[in-house]
Design a protein that fits this description.
Elements: E1 6-10, H1 16-28, E2 33-37, H2 39-49, H3 57-64, E3 73-75, E4 95-100, H4 102-110, H5 116-126, E5 131-135, H6 142-153, E6 157-160, H7 172-186
Parallel strand pairs: 1-2, 1-4, 2-3, 4-5, 5-6
Helix pairs in contact: 1-7, 4-6
The chain binds flavin mononucleotide.
C-alpha cells in the first residue's frame, strides 16, 4: 500500500534546524514529504544554517541534506493556493509545523489562510488529521498563550521546542534529535533518535557551582 504523505511546514521561528532534521529523517525512511517553507523561514535558514535558497528548493534542500534527488519530496510554491495540501480531499498522514512562528500560530488559531501553510494546517484541523505545531519563542505573551490553547482545543498538538536533558545530550545535534524524535513519536514513527527515559544508564553528573 502506498504511504500517505507527511506535510511539513518550516516557518520563520528560530530553529530551522529542527525542521531540516525532521525532513532529512523522514526522507531517509523513504517517507513521502510535502514541504512548505515560508519566506521568513528562508531568511532564518540563511542566518542560522548558512543555507541560501533560490528557486529550486527541492534540489537545493536535498543537496544540503546529503540526500538523493530521487527522495520522495514535493516542495510547494507558497504562491500557489491550489496545491494538493490545500484540499481536504487530498489525503495525508497529517502535518507538523516545525518550527512554528508566533505569526503562523496566530493564523492557525484564528483560522486565517493567508498562505498555503495556514491553509494546509486548517485542512488538517477540519479533517481531524493530526496537526502538531512546535512553537519557538520566549517569553510568551497572553495572546500567544490563548492562541496555543485555541489550537489545542481545535484538536492540534501544541508544543514548544524544549529539549530535555535527561538523555544526556552532548551536542546540539543530540538536542535537535530529542525534539525531532518527540515529534516523530506523535506520528507513530518508531524512531531511535534519542535515549528514552529508562534507557539512560548513568545518573546526571553533580551540578557544579
Ligand atoms: C533570525 C530570525 C529569527 C526569528 N525568530 C523567531 C522566533 O523564534 N519566533 C517567532 O515567532 N518569530 C521569529 N522571527 C520572526 C518571524 O520570522 C516573523 O514573525 C515572520 O513574520 C514569521 O512569518 P511566517 O510565520 O510566515 O514564517 C524570527 C525572524 C528572524 C529573521
Amino acid at each position: 500500500m502506498q504511504k500517505l504523505p507527511f506535510v511539513l511546514a518550516i516557518t520563520g521561528a528560530s530553529g530551522a534546524i529542527y525542521g531540516l532534521r525532521l525532513l532529512q529523517y523522514l526522507l531517509e525512511q523513504e517517507q513521502p514529504v510535502e514541504l512548505l517553507v515560508s519566506k521568513a523561514a528562508r531568511q532564518v535558514m540563511e542566518l542560522e544554517n548558512g543555507l541560501t535558497l533560490g528557486d529550486n528548493l527541492k534540489v537545493e534542500l536535498l543537496g544540503y541534506l546529503g540526500l538523493s534527488l530521487l527522495a520522495p519530496l514535493i516542495v510547494h510554491n507558497l504562491s500557489n493556493y491550489g496545491s494538493s495540501v490545500a484540499s481536504g480531499s487530498y489525503k495525508t498522514m497529517g502535518m507538523a509545523v516545525l518550527p512554528c512562528s508566533l505569526g503562523t500560530l496566530g493564523a492557525i488559531a484564528g483560522g486565517l489562510t493567508e498562505n498555503p501553510i495556514h491553509r494546509a494546517a486548517a485542512v488538517c484541523l477540519k479533517e481531524r488529521r493530526k496537526l502538531m505545531i512546535v512553537v519557538r519563542e520566549m517569553p510568551f505573551g497572553h495572546i500567544q498563550l490563548k492562541n496555543m490553547l485555541a489550537v489545542s482545543e481545535a484538536g492540534g498538538i501544541v508544543s514548544c521546542a524544549s529539549p530535555g536533558f535527561y538523555h544526556k545530550p552532548q551536542t546540539i545535534a543530540d538536542q535537535v534529535d530529542f525534539v525531532v524524535g518527540r515529534v516523530l513519536d506523535q506520528f507513530d514513527f518508531d524512531n531511535q533518535l534519542f535515549k528514552r527515559w529508562c534507557q539512560v544508564e548513568r545518573p546526571l553528573p553533580a551540578f557544579k557551582v
